[in-house]
């Protein structure tokens, strides 16, 4: 009896709480304890109240992450942070991969990294300029950049053909010298194929955005997109198959964003396979790094990928680079041997500072360092496609997709060749490999993406709601245009023929004097009213 009274007292106490307490707790619901135990049932202990968890659980963490990603300028800050970290990692690894060799040759361990740092500063300037430009400027720059890159590629190939005919290592006309994939104008080194990527992004995005729904017709794709793309593939792929594959991925991403039908991609795939086969065959005639009468190095790379030989039989011959790259990855393990402590860069691994710099990262920083680099490229891919999804301008959407596809496909081709998942193509790793032209053009593409990120509707409204100081806008980037306030050309009025005779100004004596209201009553016949 006493137990029943105690139970009812506790239930009544919960039901008679003050409104202030009820606001912080759940509403009292009748329970078995409130009704009391059944007759003959043994008393049971009251269950303990659940203790609230302190901190953030998994659902709260996902909600917080979703809230951060929903902020207006998230794309812009993600892009800047990932590109800056990759650039910093690249300068560090270039110094680590070249310091020993530079010191042994010239006595200056920082020669290569100083040169790369100069190109990085030029690339940061290109980034600053590109993030300040509006979309209309990019549209107008596409055709001049395309013609310039085609002209430089033609000059490069003509000089290389002249060098082949005259049995020289490089072609030279006055101050211009051509060597494999590079043009040397005085003391300036250029790689025209890198400029061709950026030009293809701008010109292709403008062309596809202008054609719009007409891309469903083959005639619209055949003029002039496919001829120009085919010409670029021939000019670039004759010396550099890897860059040609990167251009192919760029064009596929551009057409995919435009919503082209799947049979177009099937035709592109068939044409691409035929073109790659021809480029592999012409390596026996001296294309790229090949020599007439020597083994076809492109075919040897493909054969080594599809049928890997025993490393013990070819580690000092054809598969030296492949074998040493695998050895560097194995030597690094999970945590690496330490930054700067790798040994494969001591002239054992060919192109350790450029094509195979990812192997140096794996040796010195281990699997953890490789995961960090891959994660940064994954975030850049996510950010680029996020920008393409959020902007409302068709040109910005297509250009953002093309730039993102270009950077991600180049990173995949390079890393896949190093770890053995793809054939070796000799393509540099964006942001990280040693190379001035590639770094400047890559940072220019990131600057264009940053301009598009600031032009997202939510980002533009946020920037206009709380605009930064004037000196910040002058030194960094101007305010983007607000969505929905773009000036559109006025539609011309429909043709209505000649002006009706009744609306002509009458200059005779029948014209009524100004200020006098005419009688508009319908008097007389119809012919008289028309007069």
TrEMBL record:
Catalytic reaction(s) noted: [GlcNAc-(1->4)-Mur2Ac(oyl-L-Ala-gamma-D-Glu-L-Lys-D-Ala-D-Ala)](n)-di-trans,octa-cis-undecaprenyl diphosphate + beta-D-GlcNAc-(1->4)-Mur2Ac(oyl-L-Ala-gamma-D-Glu-L-Lys-D-Ala-D-Ala)-di-trans,octa-cis-undecaprenyl diphosphate = [GlcNAc-(1->4)-Mur2Ac(oyl-L-Ala-gamma-D-Glu-L-Lys-D-Ala-D-Ala)](n+1)-di-trans,octa-cis-undecaprenyl diphosphate + di-trans,octa-cis-undecaprenyl diphosphate + H(+)
Protein's cellular compartments: Membrane
Domain of life: Bacteria
Topological relation to the membrane, as annotated: Multi-pass membrane protein
Enzyme class, UniProt record, top EC level: transferase
Pfam families: FTSW_RODA_SPOVE (PF01098)
Positions of the UniProt region annotated as Disordered: 1-51, 482-531
EC number per UniProt: 2.4.99.28
Swiss-Prot/TrEMBL keywords: Cell cycle, Cell division, Cell shape, Glycosyltransferase, Membrane, Peptidoglycan synthesis, Transferase, Transmembrane, Transmembrane helix
Any Gene Ontology biological process: cell division
Basic and acidic residues compositional bias, start-end: 501-531
Predominant cellular place of this UniProt entry's protein: membrane
Protein purpose: Peptidoglycan polymerase that is essential for cell division.
Protein name, per record: Probable peptidoglycan glycosyltransferase FtsW
Organism whose genome encodes this protein: Micromonospora ureilytica
């Amino acid at each position: 009896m006493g137990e029943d009274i105690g139970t009812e007292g506790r239930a009544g106490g919960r039901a008679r709480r003050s409104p202030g307490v009820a606001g912080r707790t759940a509403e009292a619901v009748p329970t078995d304890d409130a009704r009391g135990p059944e007759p003959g049932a043994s008393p049971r202990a009251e269950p303990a109240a659940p203790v609230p968890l302190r901190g953030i659980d998994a659902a709260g963490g996902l909600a917080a992450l979703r809230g951060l990603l929903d902020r207006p300028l998230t794309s812009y800050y993600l892009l800047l942070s990932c590109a800056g970290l990759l650039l910093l990692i690249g300068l560090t690894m270039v110094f680590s991969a070249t310091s020993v060799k530079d010191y042994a040759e010239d006595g200056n361990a920082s020669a290569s990294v100083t040169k790369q740092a100069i190109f990085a500063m030029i690339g940061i300037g290109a980034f600053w300029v590109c993030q300040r430009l509006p979309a209309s400027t990019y549209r107008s720059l596409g055709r001049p950049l395309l013609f310039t890159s085609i002209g430089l590629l033609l000059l490069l190939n003509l000089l290389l053909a002249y060098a082949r005919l005259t049995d020289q290592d490089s072609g030279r006309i006055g101050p211009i010298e051509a060597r494999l994939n590079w043009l040397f104008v005085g003391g300036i080194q250029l790689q025209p194929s890198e400029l061709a990527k950026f030009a293809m992004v701008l010109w292709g995005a403008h062309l596809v955005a202008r054609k719009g729904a007409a891309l469903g017709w083959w005639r619209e794709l055949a003029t002039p997109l496919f001829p120009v793309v085919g010409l670029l593939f021939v000019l670039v792929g004759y010396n550099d198959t890897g860059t040609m594959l990167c251009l192919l991925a760029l064009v596929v991403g551009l057409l995919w964003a435009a919503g082209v039908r799947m049979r177009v991609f099937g035709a592109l795939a068939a044409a691409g396979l035929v073109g790659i086969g021809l480029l592999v065959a012409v390596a026996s005639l001296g294309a790229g790094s090949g020599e007439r009468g020597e083994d076809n190095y492109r075919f040897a790379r493909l054969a080594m990928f599809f049928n890997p030989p025993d490393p013990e039989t070819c580690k000092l011959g054809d598969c030296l680079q492949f074998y040493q790259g695998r050895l560097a990855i194995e030597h690094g393990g999970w945590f690496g041997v330490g930054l700067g402590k790798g040994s494969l860069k001591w002239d054992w691994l060919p192109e350790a500072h450029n094509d195979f710099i990812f192997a140096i990262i794996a040796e010195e920083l281990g699997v953890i360092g490789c995961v960090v680099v891959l994660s940064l490229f994954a975030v850049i891919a996510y950010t680029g496609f996020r920008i393409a999804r959020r902007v409302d301008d068709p040109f910005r959407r297509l250009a953002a997709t093309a730039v993102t596809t270009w950077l991600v496909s180049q990173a995949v081709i390079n890393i896949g060749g190093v770890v053995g998942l793809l054939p070796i193509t000799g393509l540099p790793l964006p942001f990280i490999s040693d190379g001035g032209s590639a770094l400047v053009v890559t940072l220019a593409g990131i600057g264009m993406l940053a301009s598009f990120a600031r032009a997202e509707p939510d980002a533009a409204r946020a920037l206009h709601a709380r605009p930064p100081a004037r000196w910040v806008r002058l030194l960094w980037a101007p305010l983007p245009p607000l969505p929905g306030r773009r000036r559109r050309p006025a539609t011309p009025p429909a043709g209505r023929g000649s002006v009706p005779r009744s609306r002509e100004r009458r200059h005779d004596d029948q014209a009524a004097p100004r200020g006098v209201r005419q009688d508009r009553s319908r008097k007389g016949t119809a012919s008289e009213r028309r007069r």
